[in-house]
């Protein structure tokens, strides 16, 4: 059976439908995605992050900008994402350029986080060597003392990045490995989407 009876013209809307379905069936973090970057040495690197926003402009996540992924994205502002929803036997792959989110977007999301997570963003020197766990806990305690209430400013090294999709592929598991693959491509963010099916 075909994945889409009527092939959608908007892959962002199709993704939103899939994510909504995943939210009902995935036990943890349906918004989890593998983020792949490439460093200055040309080596690819991947890790799991959480999708924190998606619309016609793209897919947003937040991070310490001085982390390994932050540095890699500064050096090569392109990335790929993979969403895998095991309960639905589905996968979505995304590729495109990276850009910063607006300060007001980052501020709004930062303030929506729990107090402990906001303190943690100040305390962690993400991706850098750590002598021991006690050093991290001491840094957390120090920042907790510095910001005793709820008024905790967003660290200058912490913000969001948006992937503007130029390629989105939908994959649905099929019987006898006859999977269904539908790929949307465009040359740039202003161009119309082109869609085609791929052999599994």
Describe the fold and architecture:
The protein has a single domain (11-109, 157-198), classed as Electron Transport, Fmn-binding Protein, Chain A (Pnp Oxidase, Chain A), CATH 2.30.110. It has 5 helices and 10 strands. The mean pLDDT is 93. It is 28% helix and 33% strand. β5 and β6 form a beta hairpin. Strands 1, 2, 3, 4, 5, 6, 7, 8, 9 and 10 form a 10-stranded antiparallel β-sheet that branches. The protein has 200 residues and is an alpha+beta fold.
Main attributes?
alpha+beta, 200 residues, Pnp Oxidase, Chain A, 10 strands, 10-stranded antiparallel beta sheet
* Series of secondary-structure elements, N-terminal to C-terminal: HEEEEHEEHHHEEEE
- How many structural domains? 1
- What is the general shape? elongated
Helical percentage: 25-40%
Architecture per CATH nomenclature, i.e. the level-2 architecture: Roll
- Percentage of residues in DSSP E strands: 25-35%
Q: CATH topology, anyone?
A: Pnp Oxidase, Chain A
Kindly, what is the distance between the CA atoms of the first and last residues, rounded to a whole number of angstroms? 14 Å
Write down the CATH class: Mainly Beta
What is the residue-mean pLDDT, rounded to a whole number?
A: 93
**Spans where pLDDT lies below 50 across 5 or more residues:** none
Helical segment tally?
A: 5
Instruction: State Rg.
Output: 19 Å
Number of strands: 10
Structural class: alpha+beta
Q: By CATH's scheme, which homologous superfamily applies?
A: Electron Transport, Fmn-binding Protein, Chain A
């Amino acid at each position: 059976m075909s994945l889409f009876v009527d092939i959608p013209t908007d892959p962002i809307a199709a993704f939103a439908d899939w994510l909504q379905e995943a939210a009902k069936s995935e036990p943890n973090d349906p918004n989890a995605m593998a983020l792949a970057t490439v460093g200055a040495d040309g080596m690819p690197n991947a890790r799991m992050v959480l999708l924190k926003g998606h619309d016609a402009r793209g897919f947003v996540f937040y991070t310490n900008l001085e982390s390994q992924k932050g540095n890699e994205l500064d050096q090569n502002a392109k990335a790929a994402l993979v969403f895998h929803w095991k309960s639905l036997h589905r996968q979505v792959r995304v590729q495109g350029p990276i850009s910063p989110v607006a300060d007001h977007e980052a501020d709004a999301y930062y303030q929506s986080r729990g107090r402990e997570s906001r303190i943690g963003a100040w305390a962690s020197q993400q991706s850098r060597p750590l002598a021991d766990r006690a050093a991290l806990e001491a840094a957390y305690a120090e920042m907790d003392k510095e910001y005793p209430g709820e008024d905790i400013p967003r660290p200058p090294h912490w913000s969001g990045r948006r992937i503007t999709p130029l390629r989105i592929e939908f994959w649905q598991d099929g019987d006898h490995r006859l999977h269904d693959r539908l790929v949307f491509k465009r040359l740039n963010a202003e161009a119309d989407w082109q869609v085609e099916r791929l052999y599994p």
